[in-house]
């Protein structure tokens, strides 16, 4: 028995040592691969930057060498992410490199918010200002991708393809009837006539106020799209609306050419001859290669910091904006003597009112030391606007979703469900409100009054933060608040934003306010290194990766449901996720 234990322990020890050594070797090999892949690319011949419009558009890129491995294991295509930061930088590099003569927008399905897509579109227009060309080809165009591609000098479509062009619609799922069947009542306390985040739980259709705001912002977003398409395609907005009413998605491809929506119908292999008509001999530079082309911006010790705040605020899952971490980052930037000015990039639908207040406080302290400019992405609404309010200047795109200045609290009452299941509860308490709030019974009148007071105080503080930041009175803010959602175009007229433009313009304004003529941009927080991403890939992110591969676009729905368990305290959150295709 003694020898058996000895050999068993030796075997176990050997397995552990072998496993550790194997992992170290694996990490070393992968690290070497990662290091070798970062070798710079030098443009040596006339070239065309090939930008494949495929995957999920995100604010910041993240090198993810493992998605393909997980996808292959699940028999699914890899979900590619394209970083807006890298795309904008690459377009700028291409613009300023004399050997890069044009851009080829290679078709696919790029899923992203309209404000982010407009940033790319604006950068492409700027690229053409240097006398360079753009050619776009796709098998099929979604509305968003078509909007982006219309900037091209030549707009090409596969003869068997289609252009999805039918206007914008917004659809809301209502759960009240389902909850009634389950015996669950959602108890709502809110401030804001337009704060419609709670409507799906307590109504079966949109309120008049919600319908009013949805109608307003969808029309604003659509008008931005068609007005810019009209200029690029030399059509009128009225013509484009008439085409949308025909539902071009289902029309024969010949109509796209007849209506001047498309220049030519060609197959993918024929696109090369179109490119050759612009540049006889050329080399294609993929997006991955362009990432490695050296940025020729001169070094400067003076920095403009870009702090990214992306996602829900304190959703509790560790994703999105974690207020404690973001506050730490803001404080680091405040103390960094090389940082002379700051751009705070906000792409958030809001979230925790408490977390929003902590971020607001850190930004207020930063503003005492350095100019603070906010650049709004696809969303900067509710809590996202709360943390934007302290800025010296707020920059947004016309189709950014913002505003939604309102507060709500939501507590379920599952008494009906308990009765259906035969559950009953009894309680012993030391004080009047020891058992409040409870999900097992309805609010008592005095409890609801207390909850309403709590929410009202949160709303008053929110309004004050906005009023102070915008140099307006609280009454002026309340007149345009009430939880109403606005586009950037509408918000400019109301004084909620100052400039309609993208991140590049926000950086320029930040530099100007600091009196900088030469500077470098430094992003915060720093991106994770290869080893950190590697460890995450083998740990907590593995489950999420597998779900993404299985569910594709439906993964977002699972994620939203999962995040409900983390919602804590009153919420300054956008009513719903807005997705445009």
Structure description:
With 581 residues, the protein is α/β, with parallel strands linked by helices. It has two domains: 47-166 and 247-292, 2-enoyl-CoA Hydratase, Chain A, domain 1, CATH 3.90.226.10; 303-428 and 437-573, 2-enoyl-CoA Hydratase, Chain A, domain 1, CATH 3.90.226.10. The strands form five sheets. Strands 11, 12, 14, 15, 16, 18, 19 and 20 form an eight-stranded mixed sheet that branches. Helix 2 packs across helix 22 (541-551) and helix 17 crosses helix 18. It is globular, with a radius of gyration of 27 Å.
* CATH fold label of the largest domain: 2-enoyl-CoA Hydratase, Chain A, domain 1
Number of helices: 23
CATH superfamily of the largest domain: 2-enoyl-CoA Hydratase, Chain A, domain 1
Q: How many DSSP-defined strands?
A: 21
Describe the secondary-structure layout:
Blueprint: H1 2-36, E1 47-52, E2 55-58, H2 67-74, E3 81-83, H3 84-96, E4 100-106, E5 110-111, H4 114-128, E6 133-141, H5 143-149, E7 154-163, H6 176-182, E8 185-191, H7 199-202, H8 208-233, H9 237-245, H10 253-258, E9 264-265, H11 271-278, E10 283-286, H12 287-292, E11 303-310, H13 323-335, E12 339-348, E13 350-352, H14 353-367, E14 372-381, H15 383-386, E15 393-396, E16 401-403, E17 407-413, H16 415-421, H17 445-470, H18 474-480, E18 485-487, H19 488-494, E19 499-500, H20 503-513, E20 520-524, H21 530-537, H22 541-551, H23 555-563, E21 571-573
Parallel strand pairs: 1-4, 1-10, 2-3, 2-5, 4-6, 6-7, 7-9, 11-12, 11-20, 12-14, 14-15, 14-16, 15-19
Antiparallel strand pairs: 8-17, 13-21, 16-18
Helix pairs in contact: 2-22, 3-4, 4-5, 13-14, 17-18
């Amino acid at each position: 028995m003694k020898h058996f234990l000895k050999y068993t322990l030796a075997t176990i020890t050997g397995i552990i040592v072998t496993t550790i050594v194997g992992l170290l070797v694996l990490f070393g090999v992968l690290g070497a691969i990662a290091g070798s892949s970062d070798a710079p690319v030098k443009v040596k011949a006339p070239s065309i930057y090939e930008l494949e419009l495929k995957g999920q558009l995100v604010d910041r890129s993240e090198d993810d060498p493992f998605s393909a491995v997980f996808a292959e294991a699940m028999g699914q295509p890899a979900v590619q992410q394209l970083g807006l930061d890298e795309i904008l930088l690459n377009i700028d590099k291409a613009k300023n490199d004399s050997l890069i003569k044009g851009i080829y927008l290679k078709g696919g399905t790029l899923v992203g918010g309209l404000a982010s897509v407009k940033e790319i579109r604006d950068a492409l227009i700027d690229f053409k200002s240097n006398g360079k060309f753009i050619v776009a080809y796709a098998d099929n165009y979604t509305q968003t991708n078509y909007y982006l591609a219309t900037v091209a000098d030549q707009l090409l479509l596969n003869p068997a393809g289609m252009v999805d062009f039918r206007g914008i619609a917004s659809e809301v799922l209502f759960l009240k009837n389902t909850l009634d069947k389950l015996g669950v009542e959602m108890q709502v306390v809110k401030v804001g006539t337009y704060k419609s985040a709670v409507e799906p739980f307590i109504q079966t259709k949109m309120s008049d106020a919600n319908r009013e705001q949805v109608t307003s912002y969808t029309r604003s977003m659509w008008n931005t799209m068609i007005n810019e398409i009209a200029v690029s395609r030399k059509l009128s907005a009225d013509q484009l609306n008439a085409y949308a009413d025909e539902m071009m998605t289902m029309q024969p491809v010949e109509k796209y050419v007849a209506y001047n929506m498309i220049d030519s119908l060609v197959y993918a292999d024929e696109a090369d001859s179109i490119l050759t008509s612009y540049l006889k001999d050329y080399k294609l530079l993929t997006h991955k290669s362009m990432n490695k082309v050296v940025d020729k911006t001169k070094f400067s010790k003076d920095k403009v910091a870009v702090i990214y705040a992306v996602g829900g605020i304190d959703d509790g899952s560790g994703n999105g904006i974690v207020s404690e971490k973001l506050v730490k980052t803001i404080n680091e930037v405040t103390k960094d003597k090389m940082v002379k000015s700051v751009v705070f990039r906000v792409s958030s639908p809001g979230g925790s009112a408490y977390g929003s207040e902590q971020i607001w406080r850190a930004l207020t302290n930063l503003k005492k030391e350095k100019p603070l400019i906010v650049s709004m992405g696809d969303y900067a609404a509710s809590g996202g606007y709360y943390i934007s309010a302290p800025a010296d200047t707020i920059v947004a795109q016309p189709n950014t979703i913002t505003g939604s200045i309102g507060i709500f609290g939501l507590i379920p009452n599952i008494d009906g469900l308990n009765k259906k299941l035969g559950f009953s509860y009894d309680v012993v308490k030391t004080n009047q409100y020891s058992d409040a709030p409870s999900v097992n019974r309805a609010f008592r009148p005095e409890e609801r009054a207390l909850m309403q007071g709590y929410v009202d105080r949160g709303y008053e503080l929110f309004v004050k933060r906005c009023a102070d930041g915008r140099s307006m009175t609280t009454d002026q803010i309340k007149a345009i608040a009430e939880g109403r959602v606005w586009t950037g175009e509408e918000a400019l007229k109301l004084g909620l934003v100052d400039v309609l433009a993208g991140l590049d313009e926000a950086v320029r304004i930040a530099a100007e306010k600091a009196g900088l003529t030469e500077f470098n941009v430094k992003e915060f927080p720093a991106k994770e290194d290869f080893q950190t991403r590697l460890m995450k890939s083998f740990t907590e992110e593995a489950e999420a990766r597998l779900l993404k591969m299985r569910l594709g676009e439906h993964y977002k729905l699972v994620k939203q449901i999962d995040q409900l368990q983390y919602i804590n305290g009153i919420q300054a959150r956008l009513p719903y996720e807005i997705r445009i295709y």
